[in-house]
Amino acid sequence: MTTDTSPGSAPDTDAPSAVPDKPVVQRGDRIFSGSATAAGVLILVVLAGVAAFLIVEAVPALVAPAEDIPGGHGLVAYIAPLVFGTLVAALIALVVATPLAVAVALFITHYAPRRIAQGLGYLVDLLAAVPSIVYGLWGILVLAPASVGLATWLNEYLWFIPLFAGPVSSTGRTMLVAGLVLAVMILPIITAVSREVFLQTPKLHEEAALALGATRWEMIRMSVIPFGRSGVISGAMLGLGRALGETMAVTIVLSVSGGITFNLIGNGNPATIAANIALEFPEATGLENNTLVASGLVLFLVTLAVNSLARYIVNRRREFSGAN
Hints:
It is found in: Cell membrane. The chain is mainly α.
C-alpha cells in the first residue's frame, strides 16, 4: 500500500509527530530539586569552611621552630604518638565489633523469629542513642576493673607477644579497654548497615540455594554474604570513622602516660588526637592552641580518607537482581 503524496492530498493525521512533547515540570519538582541541590552545595561549603579554618589556624604550628612546639621535638614528634594511639584504638574496635555486628545482623535477618528480631533490632539501634560519656563511665567503673584478670592471664601466657608484654595495669585503664568501649559504640552502626544489606539479598538466590539442598548456613555463605560483602565493608568503614573521632569515652577510660607502644595492657598508653584536644585545649594558649588545631587537621584528613574509602566501596557495588 502506498501513501498519496500528491499536492492536493490531505496530510496524514495519524503520522507520529517529529518533535515529542517536552515533559511538564511541576512546581513541586522544581522546589524539591532546588532544595536538594542547595543542601548538597551547603554541605560542600561547610566542609570547605572547616578545612579552611583548620589550615589557617594550623599554619603557625606548621612553620614554627621545633623547640617552640610543646615537647620541644617538633610538630611531627608531637602528633605521631597521637595518630598512633588513634589508629590503634580504632583498629581494636573495628576488629572486635565487625564480626559481632555481622553475626547479630545475620541472626536478626535469617535466624530469629519475627517478634524477637524486631525487638532485638530496636535494642541494637538504641545503643546508638546512648551518650558517649555513659559509655565512658561504664568503661572506667565496670569494664576496666573486670579486665584486670584477663590482662593478667594474657600477660602470663602470651607475654612473648608485644601486645601483652606487660607490666599489667592495676587499674585496667588501658588501650585494650578503650578499644573495647569503642567497639560497643560502633556496633550499632555496623549492625544497622549490615542488616539492611542482608535484607536486600534477592529471594530467588536464597530459594535457589535451598532448593539445591543447601542448609541455611550454606545458603547464607553462598548467597547472602557475597551479596552484602561490600555493604558490610562500607558499614565497617563508617564505624571506623566514628571510632577515630570519639572523644569523651576515650578521655575518661584511657590512662595516658606514654608514647608509641604496642603494649595494650600496660600503664603507658598513647593518647588519641580527640582525647588529647579535649584534655589540653581548655588551658592552651598561643602556639599550643595552633598545635592542637594542627593535630585536629590531621584527624580531619584521616577521617575524610576513611569516609571517602567507604563511599568508593559503596559506589563499586554492582546492582543485580535474582533474575539474572
